[in-house]
Amino acid sequence: MASCFVSPLFGPNWELVRLRHCRVIARSASGGSYSTAGIPPSPALSPVQEKQYLGPAVEARDGSSTTREKLDLQWDDGYGSRNVKDYLDAVKEIIEADGGPPRWFCPAECGHPLEGSPILLFLPGLDGTGMGLILHHKALGRVFEVRCLHIPVQDRTPFEGLVRLVEETARLEHSSSPKKPIYLVGDSFGGCLALAVAARNPTIDLVLILINPTTSFAQSNLQSLMPALEALPVDRHFAVPYLLSFGMCDPIKMAMVNIDNKLPARAQLQQLLGNLTAFLPGLSELADILPKGTLLWRIKLLKSAAAYANSRLHAIRAEVLVLASGRDNMVPSSDQGQQLVKTIHNCKVRHFKDHSHALLMEEGINLLTIIKGTCLYRRSGRRDHILDFLPPSTSEFKAAFEQIMWYKMHTRKLQLLSYFWLLIIWQMIKKNGTYAMLKSNCRPLIYASSPVLYSTLEDGKVVRGLSGVPSNGPVLLVGYHMLLGCELYSLVREFMLEKNIMLRGLALQVLFNGSLENPTSQFLLADWLKVFGALPVTASNLFKLLSTNSHVLLYPGGLDEACHYKGEEYKCKWPNQPEFVRMAARFGATIVPFGTVGEDDLVKHVLDYNDMMKIHFLNNHRVRDHLGEVADEEQPRSFPGILPKIPGRMYYLFGKPVKTHGWETILKSDKECARELYLQIKHEVEHCLDYLLKKRQEDPYRNIFDRMAYHIRHSPPPEIPGFQP
C-alpha cells in the first residue's frame, strides 16, 4: 500500500491532493498549480493533525512547538522491512489514479526528520514512478526532508521541461534555506537530470548522488532495440518490460533484502524462495507502468538526457558521488563512473562489482550508510564532523560486525570450520595482495581472535569487562596502537554492546582529504571507519568532542605504532608534546589509559620500511607514499608486509581512570606539571602492556584449538573464559 504525505506549508503555488492512500504535493511542470481530475483536494489540516504530520519540532498554526529527539545509538533505520514486492504494490496503487503533469510527493513512511535536516529530491529512473527509494524511505526520512518526483505514465514532458521543474524546486528551496545543501539523488535517467540541473545552477549548494547514471546511453543496448520495439504489436508488448527487468536487475539479490542472516541455512533458503514466489509474478505488471508508447518515449528521453548532460559536465561545481554497478546490463556503469570522476572536478565514485542496474533495490545496499561513509552528510555549507555525525543504526552494526561468513554459522560443526580462517585469508593474499585483503577483510579478526577485555576499578581492582571505564563523558581513552590498528574493531564493538557508547576515534587526515580516492574505489574499510565515528585528528575536533561530553579514542603514537618496524612490538612511540593532557583538563575530562596485545599471535611481521627499501621494485614504487602524512619524517613508514598466523587471542586492559577535574588552572599554567601527568599516563599504558603480556600466559584458552574444544563442550557457546586478573 502506498502511503505518502506532504506539508501544505511547503511553499507557494503548491496544493495538497489525495490519491487514495497516498498524499501527494503537486506542481505542474510549467510552474503553475493544477488539480487532477478525479482526485479531490484534501481538507485543511487542523493544528493537531498538522503537528502529527509535520513532527513535534515544526511550528503548527497555533504557534506550539517542541524539541525534536536525537538519533540513538543503533537506532532502527527500517532497512530490510521493505522489498521489491512492496515497490510493485505501491506502484500499482499510484498508477491507478495517475494523470496530470510531473509532480513531487513525500512518502509517509519517511516520518519526521531531525530538526535542521536538509532536503533530498529523488529523481526516478526509467519507470518514472518515484518509488525507487522505497527500501530506504525510513532511514533517509529521519535525516532528510525527502521529496520524490513522479512522472505519470502518459506524460510526455520533454527533458528540458523536467529540468526546469527540478531547477525551480531547487531554487525555491535555496531561497528559503540558503545555508542548507540540497541533495539530488538521481537513479539511472534521474542521474542525467541531476547533472543537468547542477550544470545550470553552479551557485546553488548541491550534492549529487548518481546511481548508475545513463550518461553512457550511447553504449547501451537499448538503442538497438528501438526498431524492434516500434514494430512490435501492442498485444505482444506485455512481455517486453518483463524481459527488460531481468536485464536490469538481479532477482536473487532483490529477494534477499529482508532475509535474516541469523537464521539457519534451510530457513534462509525457504524465505528466499518465498520472496521470489511473491514478487516474480508481479513483474508482469510492469507492462502497465511502461506501455509501448511510454517505453518508446522514455528511451528517447534517455538519449536526449545523456546528450544534454554530457555536453555540460564541465560546468558542474557541485559535490558528486557516483554509485556504479559492475554487473549493469543496461549501460556500462562501471566504465562511466571512472570517466565521470576524471571529468567532473569534485567527484568520487564507489563501485559495487556484484550488483546490477537496479542497485537501490538489492540486498546489501543501504544508501544512508553510503552517504555517511563518504562524508557527504551535512546540514550546512560545510561538514561538521561532530554536529553532522549520525550514530550507527542497527542494520549498520549488523553489516559491520555480524553479517559475515564467520558469524552466520550456527551448528557445532560449522562453528569449528569457521575458525579455519587462515587458509581463506591466505588465498585472499595470493589473489589480491596483503593491502587489498586488509582493506576489506579485517572484520573476521573479531571472531577468530576471541578478544577479551579487562578494566580497572577506582580501588585498583582489575575485572573483566568495561565496568571500570566511566559511562559519563567527557572521557579520553589513550592507548597503544597495534600493528595496522587491528584492535579497533573489537574495541568499538564492545563499547557499543556493553556500554551503549559510541567511541569517536581521531584518525589520520589521509582518510578524509581525498588522497585515497581513485576511479576504482569501492565501499571498504576506510568508509566503514567513518560510519562508526572516525574523524580527522585535529585540535579543534578534540576540543569539540570533549565539549560535547563524548568518549574520544586517541592514539598518541599514531602511524609510528600502527606501522612500526620489526622488533618494535608493544613499544609506545609517543611524541614529546603533552597537548591532549591540557585539552582534557580544560573540560575536566577523565583520561583512561589502556593497552592491547595480541598482534604477534595473529600475524607475522615479515617486511618493514627498511626491508622494502632494499627491494629495487618497492624502492622505486615508494610504498610509504600511500600512507600520506608521516608523524615523524626522520623515521619514514610504509605499509607493513605481513603473513597470517594460526590465530591466538587479543587482550585489552583499561587502566585506572585519571580525573582532571579541578586541575584546569594548574595544568594550563604549569607546563612541567602537565608533562609529569603525560608521562604518568604513558607509563600506565606501558604497565597495561606488560601486565597483559605476562597474564596471557595464564589463559587456558589463548590457543585457538583450546577454544574450539570449549565450543564442542558448550552449546550454545557462552563467553569464552580468559585469565583470572
UniProtKB/TrEMBL annotation:
CDD domains: LPLAT_MGAT-like (cd07987). Transmembrane segments: none annotated. SUPFAM superfamilies: alpha/beta-Hydrolases. One of its GO terms (molecular function) is diacylglycerol O-acyltransferase activity. GO terms for cellular component: membrane. Pfam families: DAGAT (PF03982), Hydrolase_4 (PF12146). The keyword Acyltransferase applies. Residues 175-363 form the Serine aminopeptidase S33 domain. GO terms for biological process: triglyceride biosynthetic process. Keywords: Acyltransferase, Transferase. The keyword Glycosyltransferase does not apply. Belongs to the diacylglycerol acyltransferase family. This is Serine aminopeptidase S33 domain-containing protein. It comes from Trapa natans.
